[in-house]
Records
---
Amino acid sequence: MNDEVNITRLDAFTYRERIAGGETIVLIPVGSVEQHGAHMPLGVDSLLSTKMSELAAAKIGALVGPVMSLGYKSQQRSGGGNHIAGTFGFDAATVIGACRTLVREFARHGVRKLVFVNGHYENYQFIYEGADLAVRDLAGPDQPSVMMLSYWDFVTPEVIAKLYPAGFPGWDVEHGGVMETSLMLEHFPALVRMDRLIDHPAAELPLYDLLPADPSLTPASGCLSSGKESTAEKGQVLTDSIVAGMADAILSRF
């Protein structure tokens, strides 16, 4: 049997066989195209949401749908800001519409159990809105169930304490920091240039947002904390926590 979990690498006939009956769970990664400093590529959020989805899917016998990489606008206080070249920020309507369409299309194929796996901090509420609208569109006996999660929420307090002995800066300023860099070192080491990493303290940002953005508020690196202490070993510890937590959450509902 073909043990590939990502449907984009399956042929249509195999895909239809794997989802027959409507009980197959499908995970949909949602990322972005966003700058992650000088040491990592623009596709970090899409790469990591897809990888965490694939690992969790393999654990629970699920499938992974196409990554939705049209991420919502980067915010200065969580992603450096949409003013930085290398970041592509899509309007809320685009993100909502794409997520709504994905639910409707999978439902048309006969899939009734869907999980959006978010990998871009700013996406979450727009994923929720798209899924909510689609579920309302599809009200009836074949209405799908949709779960939404962000993969970093499954990093346990014990892992956080171990990996951040000097104190955890918060997920909002972890952009380009230890978590993302360590996960990339573990799963995509050829795409990480630690020799180009710009080390600086976690950004101290105001408790408000500005439009137009004030570029001086964002560190020159584009990152909001340092990834200097990142290692592949930390990436494996993070992966184990994330995948186990996601798998347990998904199976508890489906």
Note: The radius of gyration is 18 Å.
---
Amino acid sequence: MRVAFAGTPEFAKVALARLHAAKFTIPLVLTQPDRPAGRGMKLQASPVKAFAQDHGIAVAQPRGLRLDGKYPEDASTAREALLAARPDVVVVAAYGLILPQWVLDLPPRGCMNIHGSLLPRWRGAAPIHRAIEMGDARTGITIMQMDAGLDTGDMLLVEAIDIRPDDTTATLHDRLATLGGRLVVEALELAVCGGLHRTPQPAEGVTYAHKIEKAEGLIDWTQPATIIERRIRAFDPFPGANTTLGGEAVKVWRAVVAEGRGKPGEVIESADDALTVACGEDALRLIELQRPGGKRVLARQLMQAHPDLKGTRLGTAA
């Protein structure tokens, strides 16, 4: 089977590596154009492009795929590359561009998507973040036959995993990426022998995982501690939950729910290697923090520089 691949970040690279290891013929990879990154803001290849180049796989990086869109020349060049590649199927994972109908129709077996949720829950851009943020007990991978809708296609394979109480988006992402790579290989192997079957998504239980905005990282201490704690884990590594301490921006990377009362944002205890901060309901013990320009450190290291923080209000001006 000839498998073209469309993907960009690490989540997609894991799947591409599994397909390559399984000896599928991969004639072409589509990935996003190089982006500025790092302190020097130098152009940097996506993880998918880097893997493809390391393994001698042809790469196309169109800025758009709509033949009548903003970048018609890019789309036309990508179409020629796909036609020349003659894929039986296109596998898509976190690509970042919407596939127009001509792409969906081009391969005989259509396009398969590796989606990081149990569809139809958390269709959209940020399913891993939103599952943690909303306190879901389980999530998983859905291998889906793509159609023109937003993650609305028929399900081909589904496997669930538990969300651990201490999972962050980073840790859950890695487990789901590994699962997605394994499942897409299974799906393609089943397709070869005629054992892959389509199941329409249920009409009930549809939710949308909207893109994460940087402003969402600001902690609202009037919320219950359980909600804030979930958001801290959901926004690790991006955009990071943040607040202010004495007028200085501080990121909160790890916290646990604790008993306690006080004004929202008030440090009600500064001992035992953690800061305990009152919330709208209960309190949070802040365990791992980061000051501007610094590294993630345990709260006790911050407390050594500021030993008397009790009564301080987080999230307020100095």
Note: Residues 19 and 185 are 6 Å apart (CA to CA).
---
Amino acid sequence: MRQLFPVTDMTASKTQVSDAGADREWSLDELADAYAYPEGEERWLRANMVSSLDGAGQHEGRSQPLSSDTDMRIFGTLRGLADVVVVGAETVRLEGYRPARAREVFAARRAAAGQGPAPAIAVVTASLDLDLALPLYTSPLVPTLIVTGAGAPADRIAAARAAGVEVLLAGDGAAVDPARAVALLAERGLRRQLTEGGPRLLGQFTAAGVLDELCLTVSPTMTAGDAQRIAHGPSLALPTRFGLASLLEQDGFLFSRYRRI
């Protein structure tokens, strides 16, 4: 992996190229240092997504065909740093989500930060059309949360709570209010937030102005077809500007990190 731009300096000129990251495999500790959450923030929501060269955020409904081994190492690192992984119910179904697991390589770092052994998974859903018999809900290392609106089907809210799953109400209608959702999670001490999609959820976070950082892997692939982009949803009156924080490369994959300006 090569470091193309500084990991922490957002003001660096795009003409500067670092030779500090010569082609080699970075350790997970190095990746964790590079992707560390900023200090002193009440909450920080970062997204981790992958895109093809022609803008597809998935292929045949899944992100895995666009990914690589290094992309998955960064995926695991971002999870290893997060308090909570926020994900849409459709992505849970399509990607076959399971509970986050504890990883020894991040244990000391998480303990020093006052974190539990693994991030919680927070499933965002308006309908609560969920299979509560899945391991994600029945046997997580850290209890899974369901985030929905107060107007969601009352019988399904009751069923989830009867199954021992905590339900957070973020919004007055059935739909989730993104700003309220991230605030509720932060109030629970889950301030280092990571969303892995899907595109609709990221589109909602973007439109609501609550996305602080985007970690985007650009995959050297072309998919054609009609797959969604990484963010899909209501348009903003004006595009939100992000600044480049770091850029890494390996085998033609670009691993970028942008922060909202």
Note: The longest helix spans residues 69-81.
